[in-house]
Design goal:
The complex is a heterodimer. Chain A is mainly α. Chain A has one domain. Chain A has four helices and one strand. In chain A, α2 runs antiparallel to α3. The radius of gyration of chain A is 16 Å and the shape is elongated. In chain B, the strands form six sheets. In chain B, strands 7, 10, 11, 12, 13, 14 and 15 form a seven-stranded mixed sheet that branches. Chain B has a seven-stranded mixed sheet with strand order 16-20-21-23-22-24-19, with helices on one face. Chain B is extended. In chain B, β5 and β6 form a beta hairpin. Helices cover 8% and strands 32% of the residues of chain B. The chains are: A mainly alpha, B mainly beta. The interface between A and B is medium-sized, with 17 and 14 residues. β1 of chain A pairs antiparallel with β4 of chain B. Chain B: Belongs to the tectonic family.
Chain lengths: 133, 543
Amino acid sequence: SSQLSSLPLQILLYVNGIYYIFYFLATLAMIIYKSQVFSYPDDFLAPDLAVLFLMAILEVPRLYLGFKGNLTEAEAPLGLSLGLTVGSVVLCVYLLLWQTYVLWADVLLNALLLSAYGLESGLKVTAIAAFVS
Amino acid sequence: PADTPDAAQARARRAPAPVTDVAKLCVCDLLVAQCDTNCCCDPDCSAEDFSLFTTCSVPVVTGDSQLCSQKAAVYSLDVDANPPERIFKLIDQVNPSIFCIHATNYKEAVYLKSPEIPTAENFDQFLDKFGGATFSAEPDSWNLDTDAQNPPDANETYRYEYGVPVQTEDAFLRLPSPVVSSWCSDANPAGFLVNQATKCIRSVSVEKCDSIQALSMLFYINSSILAVPKSSQMVNITVQSIVVQSQNGMRTLLNSSDVLRLPMVLDGLCINAVLGVNYHITHTDTGEIIEAAAAFVLGAISKEALSIEQSFEVSFTQENTQPVPFSGNPGYVVGLPVRAGFWPQGYPFPAGFLSNKHNQLTILQSTSTQDCLAAQGARAPVLFGYNMVSGCKLRITAAMKCQPLAQTLLDVLKGQSFPEYVASFGNSQAQDVLDWVPITQLHISEQMISNTLQSSCQIPVSLGIEVKWTKYGSLVNPQARIVNVTATITTTTLKQLPSGRERIIPVTSSVVFTDISSPAEPSYKAWPTINIKLPFDFFYPFV
């Protein structure tokens, strides 16, 4: 067909956006819970919160560029989105492995997000290949 | 050989490593190299010991239960086997909660902090903090230098509260007192509104007379007191009076107390050495100090004396009040004197009471001679809650006249100024008329049944004071309140003696305290009543 935009990528980006809102609120609530129940000094609390907010700031342009690139069938925004995804993956791995307290719920949420990122990246690469050729 | 002392030092510096293996942890293993009873995890116990146990006092040893999965050592006794044997299982305990800790990157999260070991570098810091005879959890609160870090708010008004150390220019008002041993320690602060009296021993020598600071008056009055904490308003400590104590203990009050007398050596004695200081601090009812005065007792130290005893006292008075010592606040405290006074004569009644010299109710005090007429003047204060009996013997000769004898005995029994009112609470003020209970005076005369002549002489032989008190206030903290005081004088007939004969009659006085508090009765809340009124036309068609 003449349509090059990838439908699975679009669906995944949409679902990723909704899931990310839930993920951000849940992780923030869990950090607050941890700071009340466990001993969580400020030196350890500050980096964890900074990483979470940085990830939220990265997510907005990442998703926007992904939508735009896929719908307009342009490879430049999609490529930029792929680059931002790498940054998000790094921050997600930090929250999965190097947070001060990693709860079981943290492991589930981050694993899910990582798998979504992985699938997205694969679909973006396929889409870019389709647009370029 | 050169590195073994270093290695030993390095070993000594590290605290013993914490044991974290659950298989090796045993909380009930208290005796070394001996088996603890019912302790299933004790490595010193053999199989025969286990067969004698009845139960396992420590069934499970685990780490922090908030971890998702952790090792647990489970100990149990198999009582069905013959002989009973201990079962030890190492299992993985799983926390099913979704918020269990999967991993932590913060070591102190699940382990206790290791204590700091003193080394050559941090030893001085530890010595400063903990090296004195006493150390407080917050030593910085007394150090005024820390105010530079948080400057006080302009709108915040400080004031002294009960127990807060009274601050002076450099540190705080010192009340030297014995700490641990009887030697004086100068680090004891005087607390606001805490009336204290201390006695301690200071080591002195005549040679160092003028160099020992604590012997000079200047040491006690040179720094002014801050009116409120952390303020710049100062109150100078004035010298109220100076009393000089001679070598044999006689004290003389000096006329002029404005001259500062510093210790100096004279004729081999160290004179003007401070033997006692009495601080009197006046404050307002908002916790601000407005006046401070010190009364000194100076004495002389001889060459042979190696130490002297110093006594210090601090008392706080609110401005515009007379310092009346309370016998309780508000209820009477057992052992404190019962306060009493008179209603001064005059019409209309002026406000307030006058009290006898010591504001107390007093009773005759028994002396060793037991002679009533010789014992005039010796009286003991009536202490709340303490029933007392005292007495003396009266030798009656034929030459004694009845009326003067009766009057003398009444003086002996009642004292020079027997009060008319007794304070009902320990802290009753003289202005509150209703807080004072009148003393009811009763006269009972013992009369021989056969002798009914009223004209014969009646002399008082006993005084019985009965104080009725009740518990007042809350059930949790009842306060003692005097409700009724009755003084009963019993008189007896004095028969005329033939000349040359003499009789000895006993004279007694007693004080009895009776608790008339009624038992507390429980009261129940009234059951709620349902207040329903049917409307006027409820039964319309039928009525």
